[in-house]
């Protein structure tokens, strides 16, 4: 039978197989590191993407809502929690007259039900096409046009019927398009013109579903979104609205985003700290393990030297063993991180209560490549000193040790 030459790679693989427990320990250490690097990078990247997406989708500097409903408005925007609240449409006209207000547009909110009358319980958002500056630009970018008469636009999280329709309060409408994912509550919302949503509200009211109380005015709206003039301070304009328009609360978008950014920054800091600590621990553990294992293998390497192996060859064997163990650990750790992070992305986002939007394919592949590179490198880097040291040992003296 033809004999194959004992290459550095074959010797390294044989040594790993001969000591599986030692190799498994090294693989596990690197796998933990790779898990933290890849999983942490995907988490932080997704949170930052979600934050950027939310900033782009808000579109308004101020949001004026009825007093006592600030948390409901934030629930709609951040969590897609269905809600409805109303004040007089005259409020929109009053807000538009406040100094510093460049544009003001009303919105109308309605909640569907988990009942036979509706396909599912979601947030319904009506906007005024004549004054809207928030929803339509987003729809134009994502859809490339406007919805036709009597048509709806669905967020990415909405389940549409096979025939391309949705039913709410026993009224069926065709869906013009399903919009791209934003990682905000708008993904679980359905958008329509003010005429359609008022007709739905009337249908719900006539069916005994009292979404509009008896005290609600006929021209009711739920919120007024405001874009301020250049040169005006958002907080100052908000104060002007509060003093000039009774019975309202004003949400300053930038303040809300700043609060979320603060929570996001703290979480990202924790994740980065944990990744850095695990990296340092992996380096320390491996740097301690390799000299110990090399000391146990002194006679083994002395035999290699007696058989004619050069010092360079010995260093290559040690580094190759470390590289193989690191590669196995890196692949194992990133694979486990992928199985944890990707299938449960929606759950992770909901548990963190922060906007969560995973990077695209290019971003994921780039993160994967960097994580594997760092994982693969940690073994050879930490074993280099031990490899050089063992290669310089005197063969004769090493063989005589213990006699």
From TrEMBL:
GO cellular component: plasma membrane
Compartments in which it is found: Cell membrane
Top-rank taxon: Bacteria
Domain ABC3 transporter permease C-terminal: 273-392
Coiled coil: none
Signal peptide residues on this chain, from the entry's feature table: none
UniProt keyword terms in alphabetical order: Cell membrane, Membrane, Transmembrane, Transmembrane helix, Transport
Membrane topology per record: Multi-pass membrane protein
InterPro entries the record matches: ABC-4/HrtB_transporter (IPR051125), ABC3_permease_C (IPR003838)
Membrane-traversing stretches: 21-43, 267-293, 314-344, 364-388
Function: Part of the ABC transporter complex hrt involved in hemin import. Responsible for the translocation of the substrate across the membrane.
Quaternary structure (record): The complex is composed of two ATP-binding proteins (HrtA), two transmembrane proteins (HrtB) and a solute-binding protein.
Record family assignment: Belongs to the ABC-4 integral membrane protein family. HrtB subfamily.
Stated name of the protein: Putative hemin transport system permease protein HrtB
Upper classification of the organism: Bacteria, Bacillati, Bacillota, Clostridia, Eubacteriales
